[in-house]
Write a structure and sequence with these properties.
This protein has 13 helices and 12 strands. By secondary structure, it is α/β, with parallel strands linked by helices. The protein folds into 2 domains: 50 residues, no CATH class; 307 residues, Alpha-Beta Barrel (TIM Barrel). The protein has a 9-stranded parallel beta sheet. Strands 1-3-2 form a 3-stranded antiparallel beta sheet, with no helix packed on it. Helix 4 packs parallel to helix 6. The longest helix has 18 residues. The protein is globular. The chain binds zinc ion. Zinc ion binds next to strand 4.
């Protein structure tokens, strides 16, 4: 026993000796207490011992390590089953026969059979888009539009006008409502100047009309939680917030994240007959347990995956299990229309590939993994749930 102790002591001494490089930069290191974090510019090299690198540290923008990991790669160009993009923003592409043909070619290359345009269109703008769609033999059953609601000047008499306009938009071809923007909650004001709450009773007749007309309501509430937090070095979205000033919601000027979530949930609760689709997994993709609670509490609510693939792909097992359990409540959607980004979704949903890059560095400085969904779940996420929740969509010709 005494012999062993001696060896350990020597090793430690040796180790200490080994760690004694020349003085100055890269010197031995700064001891810290338990639970403390290393001083800025240093990193922990041994438990509770921090050191600064010998060379100037690159910024998070410039440090771009090349992975040495060799794993199987399955690039999936086209979705395994024809998909419906429930969160489409084709914007100008519904402007002419040529532009919609271009949209069609892009969708064909991805096996996206249908796009639901969630550009908040109403009145003439919606009618113009519908006339371009209906005039295209190739695209007339491949694009549908959601109607927008004008939330300005909510107050006495607003609801009657809004419902009338909605009925006219449905007559013109709208199959649902949306994308209701985050401005509802964040910035919209009522006629009396107060902030328009998401669950304001003045809006009720519109939600009731959506139930009566069997229109799903596609709603984007708030933004990622970090956007409401201080922009410090602990903020997981520091880079995005430093890049985009309009994504910062300081508490002195905006309602809190939880306040908006509570108003939204109250809207869901008070309109059980209305079908809601919460965009971006309700910003709970990084907390699937919380999203599960929301879906359990509100059977009238489903969710869509646009622009949150980075959270799905960093928890492959939990996400796989979540998608299987809630396979009837998740819709595919992409948000901004960048055709080269859709295959990332197919790869996460269809493969068990590991450790691959996301398509937008400022969203995720971590790697993604495939969640390897079964075919039956893929079919529901890709088209089945959208068709079920949106009776006005063309229902024929989909794989069984
Ligand atoms: Zn959107």
């Amino acid at each position: 026993m005494r012999h062993a102790t001696v060896v350990v002591a020597m090793l430690f001494a040796g180790n200490l000796a080994l760690a004694q490089p020349p003085a100055g930069r890269g010197s031995f290191g700064t001891p810290i207490g338990a639970g403390e974090s290393c001083p800025p510019g240093t990193t922990e090299i041994r438990p509770r011992l921090c050191r600064a690198p010998e060379f100037p540290a690159p910024s998070i923008l410039d440090y771009r390590p090349k992975s040495t990991l060799i794993t199987t790669v399955h690039l999936v160009k086209r979705a395994k089953y024809p998909a419906i993009d429930f969160h489409g923003h084709p914007q100008g592409l519904l402007g002419s026969a040529a532009s919609i043909a271009g949209l069609g070619a892009a969708l064909d290359s991805l096996n996206v059979r249908m796009m639901v345009a969630a550009d908040n269109m109403s009145g003439e703008r919606l009618q113009r888009a519908m006339s371009v769609i209906n005039a295209s033999p190739a695209m007339k059953d491949r694009v549908r539009v959601l109607a927008g609601i004008d939330f300005r000047n909510v107050g006495p008499g607003w609801a009657e006008k809004a419902v009338k306009q909605l009925e006219a938009d449905v007559a013109a071809g709208a199959v649902g409502v949306g994308e209701i923007p985050k401005s509802l909650g964040l910035t919209y004001r009522k006629a009396d100047g107060t902030r328009l709450h998401i669950d304001d009773p003045d809006l009720d007749p519109v939600w009731d009309a959506c139930a009566r007309l069997k229109l799903p309501v596609f709603i984007h509430t708030a933004d990622p939680q970090e956007f409401f937090e201080p922009i410090d070095y602990k903020n997981e979205r520091w880079l995005e917030l430093a890049l985009f000033g309009d994504r910062r919601y300081p508490p002195d000027r905006f309602p809190k994240f939880e306040e908006l979530m509570a108003e939204r949930d109250n809207l869901f609760r008070r309109h059980p007959k209305t079908t809601f689709v919460a965009a971006h997994m309700g910003w709970y993709a990084s907390d699937l347990g919380r999203l599960a609670k929301l879906l359990d509490e509100f059977p009238n609510v489903s969710t869509e995956v646009g622009a949150v693939l980075y959270d799905i792909g960093r928890q492959p097992r939990a996400a796989h299990d979540f998608f299987v359990k809630y396979q009837d409540r998740i819709l595919f959607g992409k948000d901004s229309f960048q055709p080269e980004e859709y295959p990332y979704y197919w790869r996460v949903f269809e493969t068990h590939d590991e450790y691959f890059d996301y398509y937008r560095g400022y969203h995720a400085f971590w790697k993604l993994y495939g969640i390897d969904l079964p075919d039956a779940v893929l079919k529901k996420v890709y088209f089945g749930n959208a068709l079920r929740l949106t009776p006005a969509l063309p229902q024929g010709g989909w794989p069984r």
